[in-house]
Amino acid sequence: MSWHEWVRNAEVEPSLYAADLARLGEQIDVLLRGGCRIFHFDVGDGHFVEPITIGPVVLESIAPLVHEAGGVLDCHLMVDNPLRHFPQIARAGGDSATFHYEVVDDVPTTIDAAREHGLQVGVAFNPESEPEDVAAVAPDADLVLCMSIHPGYSGQKFMPDAVDRIRRLRAALPEHVFVQVDGGIDHETIGAAHGAGATLIVAGSAVFGSDDLTRSYRGLVQALA
Ligand code: DX5
Ligand code: ZN
Question: How many independent structural domains does the chain possess?
C-alpha cells in the first residue's frame, strides 16, 4: 500500500498530538467510525523542537487499532536525527515518516534510508525555508509538508503567507508528489490551504478541541468539498 492508495481525494488528518492522551484509543476509535483513515503522529525530540512529544512506545500501542480498521499512521518527525528514528518508527507500526529538510545534508539519501525500512516518505520544511529549494531535492518523496506554523506545539495560529508557499511548492513539485499542510488549520484556513494545492491537511486543535470529534472531523472534510 502507498500514499496513492490511502488518499481518496483530499484527506483531513487528525493530529494525535492534540488528542486527550488519557483517552487516545477511544478518540481514535470514534474518528475511525467517523470515516477517518489517516492519522498524523507528531514525534518531537526536545531538540529540533522544544517539547518531547509522543514516540514509538505510544505508536506501538495504537498501531493495531488503526491498522485493523484499514487506517494508516503518518509520522511527522520533528527531530534532529531522523536516520536514528526510522527503524524504531517502522518497528512500532508507523506507515510513513516525514523528516525535516532543515536537519539533513542529503535529502535523496535520507528518503532512500526511510524506504529501506518499508516506510512511505515525506519531506517537511519550516517557514524560513524556500519551497523551490525543497521541491528541487524531493521529487522522489511521496509528500512534501509545508509548515504553516513554527513546529512544536498544537494550537498556534496559521501563518497567512503559508498560502503562497503552498502554491509555490505545488508549482515546483512533480504532480505525483502530494502537498501536505500542518499548523493552524481550522474552518477559516482550510479552504485557502486546499485551494493553493494542499491535499493532505493536518488538523490538531480544530478536531480535538471539540467535544464532538465526529462532527469536527466531518466539518473539516465538508469544507474541502
Ligand atoms: C506541531 C505539529 C502539528 C500540530 C498541529 O508542530 O506538527 O501537527 O499538532 O496542531 P494544530 O492543528 O492545532 O495547529
Ligand atoms: Zn505535525
Answer: 1
CATH number at residue 68: 3.20.20.70
151 lines ligand 1 (CB under 6 A): yes
What's the mean pLDDT in 158-162? 98
Cβ of 167 closer than 6 Å to ligand 1, yes or no, is no
CB of 74 closer than 6 angstroms to any ligand 1 atom: no
pTM: 0.98
What is the CA(76)–ligand 2 centre distance, in A?
5
> How confident is the model over 26-79, as pLDDT tens digits?
999 999 999 999 999 999 999 999 999 999 999 999 999 999 999 999 999 999
Mean pLDDT over 77-85 rounds to 98
Distances (CA, A) of 21 to 28, 53, 54, 152: 10, 11, 10, 17
Hey, which of 17, 77, 147 would you mutate to test ligand 1's pocket, going by the most ligand atoms within 8 Å of its Cβ? 17
Instruction: Give the pLDDT mean for 158-187.
Output: 98
Q: Cβ neighbours of residue 14 under 8 Å, at least 6 residues apart? A: 31, 36, 39, 40, 203, 204, 207, 208, 213, 217
Domain that holds residue 210: 3-224
